[in-house]
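Tokens for chain A. Residues wanted.
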């Protein structure tokens, strides 16, 4: 008696075309690095999430450190760049800053962003070469764009005369810390965390109040009579 053979089912990730594999590996690596950090990230777990063998990773990336660099080049850097570039369509410096903060918050609100910030803040210093690479690929560019917005605001009179470099550091610290304070691994109990939906509006309001130029004091008209 003949029987119908049921074709075996396989995870469709294993049937991907070879040219798709590097991006799948990078996507998996981003998640694993964000979840575990660099030290605890295992290539076996990255391979499993990408649906490839551990040996396949070495066909594209010779080491875990080089895999990290490619995640920065192809995943983290472009995401931040897209967020930064969105502000260029606004005419005023205040408008550019509002758009910049909005897109930064949207980008940093993506899955894995909190873990990536923790990695960069608390672990990356142990890898000086990777820290320098990340700084040049991501931080320097983003800081330059924000600094240029602040300089334009000072030049136009929208913002008070302040040191753009210091202002960039203060704004970035405010945004990044709020990502950590409102994320799923925030140290405070959920009921004591700032409402995520309100953070962007509050941060934007705070930053603009800190930067706006003080209104000009009224100058008395010469010869005006006084009661």
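Reply:
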């Amino acid at each position: 008696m003949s029987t119908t053979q049921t074709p075996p089912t396989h995870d469709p990730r294993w049937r991907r075309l070879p040219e798709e594999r590097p991006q799948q590996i990078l996507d998996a690596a981003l998640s694993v690095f964000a979840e575990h950090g660099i030290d605890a990230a295992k290539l076996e777990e990255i391979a499993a999430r990408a649906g490839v063998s551990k040996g396949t990773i070495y066909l594209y990336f010779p080491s875990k450190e080089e895999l990290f660099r490619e995640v920065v080049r192809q995943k983290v850097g472009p995401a931040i760049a897209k967020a930064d570039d969105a502000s260029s369509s606004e005419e005023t410096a205040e408008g550019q800053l509002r758009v910049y903060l909005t897109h930064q918050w949207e980008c940093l609100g993506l899955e894995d962003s909190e873990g990536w910030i923790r990695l960069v803040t608390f672990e990356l210093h142990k890898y000086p070469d990777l820290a320098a690479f990340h700084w040049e690929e991501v931080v320097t560019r983003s800081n330059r764009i924000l600094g240029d917005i602040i300089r334009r605001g000072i030049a136009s009179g929208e913002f008070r005369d302040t040191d753009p470099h210091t202002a960039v550091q203060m704004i970035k610290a405010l945004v990044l810390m709020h990502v950590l304070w409102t994320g799923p691994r925030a140290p405070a109990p959920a009921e004591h965390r700032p409402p995520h939906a309100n953070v962007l509006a509050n941060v934007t309001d705070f930053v603009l109040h800190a930067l706006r130029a003080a209104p000009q004091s009224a100058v008395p008209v010469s010869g005006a009579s006084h009661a």
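The chain has a mean pLDDT of 85. Residues 68-211 form a domain with the Tetracycline Repressor; domain 2 fold (CATH 1.10.357.10).
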